[in-house]
Amino acid sequence: MRDHPRVVMGHGGGGALSAELVRHVFAPAFGGEVLAQLGDSAAITLGGARLAFSTDSYVVRPLFFPGGGIGDLAVNGTVNDLAMSGARAAYLSCGFILEEGVEVATVARVAEAMGAAARAAGVEIATGDTKVVEAGHGDGVYINTAGIGLIPQGVDLRPQRVVPGDVVIVSGEIGLHGVAIMSVREGLGFEADIVSDCAPLGGLVETMLAVTPDLHVLRDPTRGGLAAALNEIAAASDTGVVISEGRVPVPEPVANACAILGLDPFYVANEGKLVAFVPREHADAVLDAMRAHPLGRHATVIGEAVEAHPGLVVARTGLGGTRVVDLPIGEQLPRIC
């Protein structure tokens, strides 16, 4: 924080700068045991029921991209955050911040996409708000969504439950969302079309929990990508994580695009993938169930939690060496969600 006395783009990137902002500014100001969990959603007890509660804001540019748009993203992003606590989303709120001069047809297109995404995810948009800012003080449309859902009995998903020996599974090919955004934003053409993986993960999580409620932690690797998600879990659980670089499913078009752009696919955002830490005795059954679901057909075991190097993520390379997969400082691709 001493090196960045003013907010920079990296503070919104889901990496080390974001973590410092939360740790040194927001957490001390707000306090509270629930906030201290710092999960994708907060697990709370209200009236005897265990609820997951989450909020997120969306400032993606451009508003529409291959595979979706800001409307789909605003619904699926919050639904997925709730799913990472094991909850099935029930209700969402929706706040629109519109820039003066944006076409009403654009707003309608976004709203229609949100409604369709909510119906597909089985969630109701129950309340909302609209504000307008002067021309030049926004970027067309910003959206905030908050959501609540019930956590099933016996489900306790949090990084503190990770233990050495847990198997690390990723639900499918990584890097699609971030590269899809960049290809449109920069007017880049690649040999194969790259489409965002934006999708609701609630059904996949239910399929996994039907095998066993004893999953240890789930995380959707959005900002900061797979690398950020693994580092957050390693730090919170005080365990090491070892992954096999060659087993991480990176589709060839994404690998090629990242090579051209100088990006590391481990740090590129996803919007329809999850990473799971599963007790070893349940890993095979959970993996089979994931592969039987449309959103998990490319699920792959990529590594394990270990006692060595607690808090660090290490990748075994194809050459037989190892490298540290560090927490990113900011974000390779800003404004992607």
UniProtKB/TrEMBL annotation:
Gene3D superfamilies: PurM-like C-terminal domain, PurM-like, N-terminal domain
Domain PurM-like C-terminal: 164-309
Positions of the PurM-like N-terminal domain: 40-151
SUPFAM superfamilies: PurM C-terminal domain-like, PurM N-terminal domain-like
InterPro entries from the UniProt entry: HypE, PurM-like_C_dom, PurM-like_C_sf, PurM-like_N, PurM-like_N_sf
A Pfam family of this chain: AIRS_C
Domain of life: Bacteria
Family, similarity comment: Belongs to the HypE family.
Protein name as annotated: Hydrogenase expression/formation protein HypE
UniProt source species: Streptomyces goshikiensis
